[in-house]
């Protein structure tokens, strides 16, 4: 209980608003500066929000580096997700009121700050009876996992899904959401020194099978499919060899959805898989998905409600996080870029 | 008129039935033998057909070689498409009668023969007021082109489609079907000594743009899109570099359908095209498409009717063909395997 109280106290303090600002693209540790921010009172359709917590995701770093598909006007505050508490609302604001928790609907809000004034429609309310970390890490990775499992194949209990990068935040959310639906997951991870502890951690989340990239390539993989149906859905966040190998195990007519490219290599598919195995390939980008539903957001609110229900029931845990006070952002950025750390770095305001 | 009469006379002759039989897989010229066939009278639901003409398609050769995704029980008669005239029907046959022209619904019927007894449901009637060559080459390539243009993107007059292998039989059918629908085609071909005559021939069929693989890679391609919308649909029969380059020009959210792999190289897609350009990839195999509709064949008969209408109105010409008497099959096979010949070899029974 104590950390939450501490967070709330800090989050609601009256210190001058501050944020991690960058004026040009570059290495995050080089270009991000903690600066005081001028915050005006909210206009008619605006909301003043005191941020509580905001994680550091890989795509946040790519945005600062200038290598992402979506770039803000500079200068800008970094960070795309997080949770805040409404401090003050404009006259015409109807969807939230002071004390409500809110998360961004859209990317590029600039969440690495203590406080901000945002348009009402840029925010969506979340219940405040879930953990701050759960709420702060909800809008990118669990939403991606939710859409990946919902929008491409009609999956029924007993069906299976294969994914790589299974230890990523999306991967862990996929494991838990699939487990809550009775869907079997085949989870590919990179080999590493502490593999067994990773396997156990993913199994604790509900992973049915955890295999390494090396095992994925071996003929023994066919044994796995003696007691498990071929996956109708493959989720790819890697590219290169990992993806081609994963595709080989996809069921006839199945779909592979690519939502990331950690290996920085393209996706390569044998022509025969397309023609004779009838596999389909497509991509998913949660930012675009939400942008397309910005005006008519029923699907967004249903998804947030479903995910918060799972969080409340302990069926969807946030990724293991290390909390950092905002002023220690340099160490947080360093750890966010360290491979195999298996923890998300989260800034506490 | 004379050749048709000659064909009909030959096709309806009473000589002993013969066919190109192979007892093992291998090089077609080595393993195919012209043999007498024992033909029984048709049973209740069977039809005796005198074949008129049957083309030699690349997939026919792959089937004889044993490298195709669908292989018949051996010994077998080669050939997957062609047209014949019904000579005799079993007691319960209702869909065709003597004198009707028929083509195979399905692959692996063994069409390189003078005569055969087939189940009624393996055949579909075609009108006999189109050319024999048009009917004989209808069931694989024009059907593929028809489905490629119908089933993946909703195309309207003025929209554009890009394809490679544009001089293939499917490619030529795509050009003509698209032209009849008011859809602009961007047609990629391999460079060759007689390029200009090929360009003119495809333009005569209705091609709007004909470009070489080299031109496809050049920055000047963007000039083409000043007066032509980005294609919503890309049709791929090549693989390798050709496919990746073609994909670059696809519109946001467009679809690439792979129906062949002439370059014997896989399809390689940048991860960013999937995630940020939202392109979709899938495959098409006309054999499977028809198999899936074998029992409920409304879509098949509508397609055949539409295609025969276009043939009758001169809007869909068969590919340039060289006709060979069945006994000259060795030379026909040789020419069917000669690159850049730009003519289809067709056996006349």
What features would you describe in this structure?
The structure is a homodimer of 349-residue chains. The first copy, chain A, has 349 residues and is α/β, with parallel strands linked by helices. The first copy, chain A, is built from 14 helices and 17 strands. The first copy, chain A, folds into two domains: 167 residues, Alpha-Beta Complex (Quinone Oxidoreductase, Chain A, domain 1), CATH 3.90.180.10; 146 residues, Rossmann fold (3-Layer(aba) Sandwich), CATH 3.40.50. In chain A, helix 5 packs across helix 6. Chain A is globular. Chains A and B meet through strand 14, helix 11 and strand 15 of A and strand 14, helix 11 and strand 15 of B. Strand 14 of chain A pairs antiparallel with strand 14 of chain B, so a sheet runs across the interface. Chains A, B: One of its GO terms (cellular component) is mitochondrion. Chains A, B: Pfam families: ADH_N, ADH_zinc_N.
